[in-house]
């Protein structure tokens, strides 16, 4: 019997490839990974097993739920409480701390000022912002010892304990970032400490997020969302969600978005664009968005979405670092080398008014 072929690929191979793609689409999920053995300095075998689980997940979905990550529930709860205290301040008080410069990326961002998108065209972004702004406000915090750019803190009397809580949380999140990057290094057979001197300047961004209640009708227009579909810019994002939910992750095989429902005791960790670029796309930076949860009826024909809080810690390489194809990630780099600082500042400049 003669086997049909398409070019040099047999019909059987085409069918097999199609089945594999369908299987990938149907099996897409965000796995829950127990990080305790890696953190506890377990034996080499146990640490390597966890590292391989992390890297496999980041190759397939780009997202994980991390359990036993080492950040206590009390620490997270206190940070959420101080964040809520800040966003309850009057608008005129918050506006005195307004975000001003992408090189700094610090300060308060009012509702509608940011429009996250994959576009790099300023005119297109401006049009999207005018038509469908993101319904959220945020407070951006960087490393506090920076010699050039300073954080913008509210008066202590207005939000007692806010500054120290956020400084402590920033350091705690950086420490977790180091550990997860060490697991990635092990999983890619680079040596556990490979990334240590490339992320030690702590050029990160702690973002406190508040999604105010909003009439559902305002979110039903074309392109509207609490935060539009986007990927993140840096190495990893550590996301702390409340119980309201709304985060959705795109299945790269089908284009459909699936809910990343909050799971008690876990945080969501995802790959950013620079880590994907660094790994020559071996690790996947996946599109995600925030949509409105089920709304409550407030009138005959009107509904209101509930408020939502989240905290994102955007992890970055050192701003002086050059991002070029890693060893063990292919012999044909897809991207030219890029400076971290130039890349991050460029993306931020496109995103804000």
UniProtKB/TrEMBL annotation:
Which domain of life, per UniProt? Eukaryota
Q: Which UniProt keywords apply?
A: Iron, Metal-binding, Oxidoreductase
Say yes or no: keyword Oxidoreductase present.
yes
Q: Which molecular function terms from Gene Ontology are attached? A: metal ion binding; oxidoreductase activity
Fe2OG dioxygenase domain residues: 199-317
**The UniProt record lists the keyword RNA-binding:** no
Q: Which Pfam families match?
A: 2OG-FeII_Oxy (PF03171), DIOX_N (PF14226)
Per the record, the similarity remark reads: Belongs to the iron/ascorbate-dependent oxidoreductase family.
Supply the name of the protein: Clavaminate synthase-like protein
From what organism does this protein derive?
A: Macrolepiota fuliginosa MF-IS2
């Amino acid at each position: 019997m003669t086997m049909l072929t398409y070019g040099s690929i047999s019909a059987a191979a085409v069918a097999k490839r199609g089945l594999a793609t369908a299987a990938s689409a149907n099996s897409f999920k965000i796995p829950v990974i127990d990080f305790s053995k890696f953190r506890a300095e377990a034996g080499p075998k146990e640490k390597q097993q966890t590292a391989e689980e992390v890297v496999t997940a980041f190759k397939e979905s780009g997202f994980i739920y991390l359990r036993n990550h080492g950040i206590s529930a009390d620490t997270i709860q206190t940070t959420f409480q101080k964040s809520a205290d800040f966003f309850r301040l009057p608008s005129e008080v918050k506006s005195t701390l307004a975000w001003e410069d992408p090189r700094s990326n610090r300060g308060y961002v009012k509702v509608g000022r940011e429009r996250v998108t994959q576009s790099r065209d300023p005119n297109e972004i401006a049009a999207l912002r005018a038509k469908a702004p993101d319904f959220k406000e945020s407070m951006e915090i960087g490393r506090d010892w920076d010699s050039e750019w300073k954080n913008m803190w509210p008066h202590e009397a207005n939000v007692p304990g806010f500054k120290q809580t956020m400084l402590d949380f920033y350091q705690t999140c950086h420490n977790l970032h180091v550990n997860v990057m060490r697991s990635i290094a092990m999983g890619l057979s680079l040596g556990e400490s490979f990334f240590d001197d490339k992320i030690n300047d702590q050029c990160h961004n702690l973002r406190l997020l508040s999604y105010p209640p909003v009439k559902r009708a305002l979110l039903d227009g074309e392109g509207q969302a609490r935060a539009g579909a986007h990927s993140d810019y840096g190495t990893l994002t550590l996301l702390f969600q409340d119980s309201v939910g709304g985060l959705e992750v795109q299945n790269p095989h089908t284009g459909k978005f699936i809910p990343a429902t909050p799971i008690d005791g876990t945080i969501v960790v995802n790959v950013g664009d620079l880590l994907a670029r660094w790994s020559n796309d071996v690790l996947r930076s996946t599109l995600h968005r925030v949509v409105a949860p089920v709304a409550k009826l407030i009138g005959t024909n009107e509904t209101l979405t509930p408020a939502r809080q989240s905290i994102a810690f955007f992890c970055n390489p050192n701003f002086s670092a050059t991002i070029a194809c890693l060893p063990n990630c292919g012999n044909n780099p897809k991207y030219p080398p890029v400076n971290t600082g130039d890349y991050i500042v460029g993306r931020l400049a496109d995103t804000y008014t």
